[in-house]
Amino acid sequence: MATLAIALAAPAELAPWGAEVRLVLRAPWPALVALVAALLLLAAGRLPRAVVAPATLDRSALAIGALFVVEPLIHLGLLALAAWRPTAATAEALLPVESAMPTWSLASAVNVAVLVALAPLAEETFFRGRLLPWLDRRVGRVTAVAVTTATFALAHGNPQQVLVALPLGLLLAAVRLSGGSLGACVVTHAVHNGLFVVGGARLIAAPWVPLLLVAAGSGLLIVAWCYHLRPGPRPHRRCLALVAIAVAAIAALAPGYRVARDHLWVMAVHTHCYWWRITNDRLLLRLDALRRRGQLDDGRRAALGARLVARPCQTPVRQTCLLAWIDHTGDAQREPGLIAEFLADLAQQGAPSPGQIDLALDFARRFPSAFANVVYEYPEVLRRWLPLPQAADRALAQIIATPAFQPRRLLLGHLERAYPGQIAALLLRLPADHVTPCDRRHLRGNYPDTDRRLAELARSDPERARAFGYGLDVVAP
Fold first, then answer.
1. Which of 317, 337, 415, 404 lies closest to 375, judged by CA?
2. Which of 4, 11, 10, 8 has its CA nearest to residue 32?
3. CA-CA distance, 368 to 39, in Å (whole number)?
4. Are 155 and 11 in contact (CB under 8 A)?
């Protein structure tokens, strides 16, 4: 029964039959976990009850503190694995989708109950409660720990979870063999699963998570040691001394950890940018979501840009768009034709999301000639990206960002065709120093009542009216 459970949950690379079994069962993820947990509980019932001396002290706080301290090192291993072997799971961890606040439902409650309660109880009951003591008496402690840890790691769904389960299995085996109760193992395992249920795989990319985990873990270890495991005279003084040592150690090691973590993160993200088969706009939206959440700071952006220059992406369009997004100051070096190709891909999407529209307009303002070419080929895109009058401010910003005569004339002409009679009001909002001969020509060529409009404008803003040629003897071209 245990072999069947492990075979069902083993990674597809090591146990390809598991995927076929899951397809036959048609079981979603929580149901599969529940099935594996039930099989492990049945298998534990067939093994003899372990004869273990009752634990005199509860080691739950010590185990959870050690878990929190070790967790950042596990994150480094996950980043290294993601840099070496990108998968869909690592992509979701490094570049998660920006989503709204989760809503609780019966399905999510069942998912949490299975992952945080049932799975830890079943796995600890079998692996540390029955299998580990049974093997310890027959093959020795080292072999027992190795076998139980390896099989425990194997009973997880993908290589990333296997990498996380290996150190977790070693920690829980040490807790159990050092006199800890099975309950301490179950609680520690449940806390570990709860971290990923609450924070998700994106925990490995959040810059502030390692510091919080190490601080919380150090605090638990110090309090458990001073007041519970080794109580002695004047525990407060000893506790304060250990806190001071822990703070000094964290302050000394944090910069080096941050450098290593950023380096591995940049390597992993670059690998995914190189290999990941995702549309360019969705990749940029995920990167922009990380920037807004503070996970992609200037240092990481610069390092990612340097790696892209050293090893360009497989397609020139992705390479150009990524460099243009990362480094806004180097826009003059980009290929306008490739930017136009990227904008054309966006223009062909019938129902763009608000994020895709923001991304398109950001590139349009920085590459107005490329945008004008796209508007020439896909004039219908103006109604999707710049709907008037709702997006009047954005349309005005795009006109200002297009100073060259030919692209500006092209943009104004297509705006006029998309919104007849509405562009004059838009042009008359232009600041005086941004009015060009193209604007004066468009106004007089398409609106017979231009003089009346300029006369009304002159009463409130004579400077802008003069910029459009009002009151001057010179005829606008």
1. 415
2. 8
3. 62
4. no
Tokens of 470: 């009002």
- Which CA distances in Å does 196 have to 191, 215, 221, 364? 9, 18, 22, 39
Q: In the prediction, which pLDDT does 473 show?
A: 46
Beta strands in 17-78 (DSSP E): none
How long, in residues, is the chain? 477
Please give the model's pTM, rounded to 2 decimal places.
Answer: 0.83
Give the separation between CA 135 and CA 12, rounded to whole angstroms.
27
Confidence of residue 477 (pLDDT cuts 50, 70, 90): very low
How many beta carbons lie within 10 A of that of residue 219, not counting itself?
A: 17
Residue 324 near residue 331, CB atoms below 8 Å: yes
Domain boundaries, the chain: 2-97+110-264, 312-418, 428-477
Tokens 């062909």 identify what position? 348
* Dihedral Cα 146, 148, 151, 156, nearest 10 deg: -110
To 5 degrees, how large is the angle CA 156–CA 9–CA 166? 20
C-alpha–C-alpha distance, residues 355 and 361, integer Å: 10
